[in-house]
Every structure is written in C-alpha cells, then in structure tokens.
Amino acid sequence: MNQPAFISPPTPQEEPDTRGTLARMVTTLFEHWKLSSNDQLSLLGLSAGNRPALARYRKGEPLANSRDLLERAGHLLAIHKNLRLLFPHDRDLAYAWMTTANRAFAGKTPVELIAEWGFAGLLQTRAYLDRARGV
Prior knowledge:
Blueprint: H1 15-33, H2 37-43, H3 51-58, H4 67-86, H5 91-96, H6 110-117, H7 119-133
Helix pairs in contact: 1-4, 4-7, 6-7
C-alpha cells in the first residue's frame, strides 16, 4: 500500500536556499487561496506577533529553521498538490477549496479547522485530500 509522500525538512547544506524557496512558494500559495494575514499566520503555526516574519517570508527570506514550520510548509504544499490533481480543470475551485465550508469538517472551512485544531487540523486536511485521491 502506498504511503503519502511527506516533504522532509531540508538537509543542512541546502537549508537557506531551500527554506527561501519554501517561503516564496507558501506565500504565493496563500495569495492564490486569498487568505488574510491572520489565517496565514495560523496555518504556519505563528502568533499574531510574528507579522514581521510573515512580511519577510513574502519577500523570500528563508523560513525559520523550525521543524514545526518546515513540516507545516510541506503539508501545505502537499494540500495544494492534492487540490491541483483533484481539480485539474478548475483552478478557481482548487484555490477556493481551503476557504469553502466542508461537511467532512462539520461545516467548517479547512482554514477554520486548522486554526482550531492546529497541526492536527493540518494533518486531518491533508489526510482527507490524500484519501480523496486514493493515496
């Protein structure tokens, strides 16, 4: 049985470049999903006091060398990949999915689920999409 592929944290020799690329990819993804700064901070597991870090990430500064942050980035990108594969001909639907209420999440949006449950909500969202794809 195939297991979902998780993006592992970067190796030490590629850390700054890889973390910078991750920052650009994740913040671009947030733009496509049309998330507020508060939602972006929540998905990254950051407090409201970390707005300056979010602004730096938008400019391509490498993500902090935090296992939690890097794993969250990996899961967010995997969620995006799943959505693109599930809705290959409807990019708007793929981008709106994170902010659309879902019966599977008791009528909450995936963003609300993640904000409420934290990392567990992120994993639940990822697992839901993995199952939808048959992974």
